Amino acid sequence: MAGQLVPLPEVERLSPACIRILGGNPGKFTLQGTNTYLLGTGSRRILIDTAEGGPSWTAAIKSTLQREEAQVETVLISHWHHDHVGGISNILQLCPDAKVYKNQPEEGQRDIADGQTFAAEGASLTAFHTPGHTDDHTTFVLAEEDAMFTADNVLGQGTTVFEDLAAYLASLERMRRLFKGRAYPGHGPVVSDGPARIEEYVRHRKEREDQVIRTLRSSKAAHGTARPHAHLDGWTALELVKVIYKDVPEELHIPACGGVLQILEKLEREGGVARVSDGERWVWKDRSSL
């Protein structure tokens, strides 16, 4: 969830070996649009992600390849979401000999193993399986810049969503140690200090967890939602969201609810919370602190 978005050009050279091409699909979850990256300095290039394959992205990648006098030899997919894979068929029409790689590949694709390397003139990449946002999520370190393509685990603005909080936090810790330079995110502008942004993400997740715990331990009456001691009946995830995300537009409460549920499930595994019998409500187990 990001505030005012930084304007980004449709096509921009970010470094001698990296050109960002926006996906032409802006939105509240895609921000300025999906970032796709053309890597290398020679006639054979690597492309990270393919956006949704919309007409503006297809035209932009075609004109960029013509201008660069280059072809895509290797397509690396960071994860399965449509706004990252939708343009695979488009790029294969432009570059029929390109090979498509993805963790947990689909038919016609090749697997990406953790630690696998990919190279083009001017660009040497190492792939790392970093689940959290999705189970197949993969990031790539660019050796020439000591930079990382963080895909959707770390964005250029705001925070992200995830399928598995524990796996996500473990991936963030791993990612932070793998590079020292820029982060090239799946959405939003380049982050100049990638490891520092990852540390911010870890702190933010810890703050959200602390907010959930404090709210669970408080009475609903303290938040103007119910009579005193109604918390003994438990909190639903959406009730927690309405307190914790009270300054966030309501249209974003449902996606925020998914993150709160992930926190609750993590705390349940750790023994800190329990579900009420209906399975929809949660209580803090340490009643002595209430």
UniProtKB/TrEMBL annotation:
<feature type="domain" description="Metallo-beta-lactamase">
    <location>
        <begin position="33"/>
        <end position="187"/>
    </location>
</feature>
<keyword id="KW-0378">Hydrolase</keyword>
<dbReference type="Pfam" id="PF00753">
    <property type="entry name" value="Lactamase_B"/>
</dbReference>
<comment type="similarity">
    <text>Belongs to the metallo-beta-lactamase superfamily. Glyoxalase II family.</text>
</comment>
<dbReference type="Pfam" id="PF17778">
    <property type="entry name" value="WHD_BLACT"/>
</dbReference>
<dbReference type="GO" id="GO:0046872">
    <property type="term" value="F:metal ion binding"/>
</dbReference>
<dbReference type="InterPro" id="IPR001279">
    <property type="entry name" value="Metallo-B-lactamas"/>
</dbReference>
<dbReference type="InterPro" id="IPR047921">
    <property type="entry name" value="LACTB2-like_MBL-fold"/>
</dbReference>
<dbReference type="GO" id="GO:0044550">
    <property type="term" value="P:secondary metabolite biosynthetic process"/>
</dbReference>
<dbReference type="InterPro" id="IPR036388">
    <property type="entry name" value="WH-like_DNA-bd_sf"/>
</dbReference>
<protein>
    <submittedName>
        <fullName>Metallo-beta-lactamase superfamily protein</fullName>
    </submittedName>
</protein>
<dbReference type="InterPro" id="IPR036866">
    <property type="entry name" value="RibonucZ/Hydroxyglut_hydro"/>
</dbReference>
<dbReference type="InterPro" id="IPR050662">
    <property type="entry name" value="Sec-metab_biosynth-thioest"/>
</dbReference>
<dbReference type="InterPro" id="IPR041516">
    <property type="entry name" value="LACTB2_WH"/>
</dbReference>
<dbReference type="GO" id="GO:0016787">
    <property type="term" value="F:hydrolase activity"/>
</dbReference>
<keyword id="KW-0479">Metal-binding</keyword>
<keyword id="KW-0862">Zinc</keyword>
